[in-house]
Amino acid sequence: MRSQWRMAFLSGGEPAVVLFESDPADVVITDMRMPGMDGAALLGTVRQRWPGTVRFILSGYTDQNAALRSVGVAHRFVSKPCDPGLLLAAVRDACEVLDRFSVPGLRGLVCGVDALPSPPTSSADIAEALARSDVSAEHVVSLVERDPGSAATLLHVANSAFFGLARSVTSVQDAVACLGIGPVRAVLLAAGPAGRMRCETADMARLTEEVSADGMTVANAARERVPGVRAQEAYTAGLLHGIGWLALAAVATKQVRAVRRDIRDGVASCAAERQQLGTTHAEVGGCLLRLWDLPASLVNAVAHHRDLAAPGASDPVVAAVAVAVSELAVAHG
Asked: Which residues does 76 contact at the CB level (< 8 Å), separation at least 6?
C-alpha cells in the first residue's frame, strides 16, 4: 500500500507519541505487549491527545485482563496471525468512516468516545447485580437489554477478534453466552464509572432515560415485525437505534443541550442537530458502531432509523427498526 498510503513503522509506544507530536495519523495500529508503554497505554494517550485517530490493537497476546484494558481506548482488536487482506479491509473501512466527518472537530468527537452513559438507575442495577457472585446470566441479560449503552459496549467486546468467535454477535443474550459472566462483569464494571460521570447533571440523566425508554419501545416493536431466528437481532437493533445521542452526550454535552433546547422551541430535530452539530445522532451512532466493527445489520439500522427508504432497507431488521421509529414519532406527536 506504499503507493496509496503514507505510513510510518516504529519500534514502540514512546517513539509513536513523539511522531504524533508533529504528524498525527488517521489510523494507529499497535501490538499489545511492548517494552515500556504497552498498546493499551499508547492508545489511551492517543485517544486523549489526538481523539480523531482510529485506534487498532493487532496482537497475538491473549491475556484477558490486558485485552479488557483496551475497552474504551481501542476501536478494534485484530488477532494475530492476521490475514493481510482482512487488515487492509479494516483500515479502508476506518478511513471511509473518517471521510464522512467533513465538519471540523466532529471526527475527534466521534472517535474520542470512551464510554457510553447509562440511566443512573440502570447503571446502579447492573453494578449491584454483577457484584453478586451467584448472579445468573439470564438476570444480567434482562438488565443489559434495557440499557443501550451497556448493550453496545458488550457487543463491541463480543465482536472483537480477541475472543475468536466464529460468528457475528447480534444480541445481548448471545454476547453473555459467548463471553461468560466473568468477562461480562469485567467489561461492564470497567465501563460503568466513566459512563456514570456523563450523567451527573439532571438533563443528561434525563436524556439517557429517554434514549433507553424509546430504545425498548422500538426494540419490542421491531422484534414483533421480524419473527423467527432474527427476532432478537431486531430487538438489539431497535434498542441501539438512539445510541448516537449517548455518544454525543459523552463528548458534546453543550451542543446536545443546545439541540434539545431548539427542539423544545419547535425546531425540527434533524434541522436542530445539523445546525448545532453539523450531523445527526443517527449518523454519529452508525459511524461509532461501524468503527467498533459491529454487524452490518445493526450499523445500518442505527444509521438509517429515520429513513424508511434507506439503503439496506431490504434487510428486514433495518426496515423493522425504521417502521418502529416512525410509529414512535407519531405516538409522540
From this structure: 54, 55, 56, 57, 90, 94, 160, 161, 291, 292, 293
Give phi and psi for 76, each to the nearest 5. Answer: -140, 145
Burial 53-82, CB ≥16 within 10 A → b, else e: bbbbbbbebeeeebbbbbbbbbbbbbbeee
Q: For the full predicted model, state whether its pTM sits above 0.90.
A: yes
The helix, strand and coil proportions of the chain, stated in percent and rounded to the nearest 5, come to: 60, 5, 35
Residues pairing with 76 in the sheet: 56
C-alpha cell of residue 318: 433495518
Q: Which is nearest to 330 in space by CA: 221, 257, 246, 204? A: 221
CATH architecture entry for 120-332: Orthogonal Bundle (1.10)
DSSP string, 235-247: HHHHHTTTHHHHH
What is the grid cell recorded at 34?
511492548
Query: Residues 236, 171: contact at Cβ < 8 Å?
Result: yes
Other beta carbons less than 10 A from residue 24's beta carbon: 13
Same fold, 13-99 and 120-332: no
42-52: b (≥16 Cβ within 10 Å) or e = bbbbbbeebbb
Do the bridges between strand 76-79 and strand 27-30 make them parallel or antiparallel, or are there none, so unpaired?
unpaired
Domain ranges for the chain, please list them.
13-99, 120-332
- pLDDT by residue (tens digit) across 203-261? 888 999 999 999 999 999 999 999 899 999 999 999 999 999 999 988 888 899 999 99
The answer to whether the beta carbons of residues 305 and 317 sit under 8 Å apart is: no
The 10s digit of each residue's pLDDT in 281-305 is 999 999 999 999 999 999 999 999 9
Topology of the domain covering 13-99 = Rossmann fold (3.40.50)
User: For residue 222, which of 313, 159, 284 has the smallest C-alpha distance?
Assistant: 313
Q: What distance in Å separates the CA atoms of residue 183 and residue 69, rounded to the nearest whole number?
A: 12
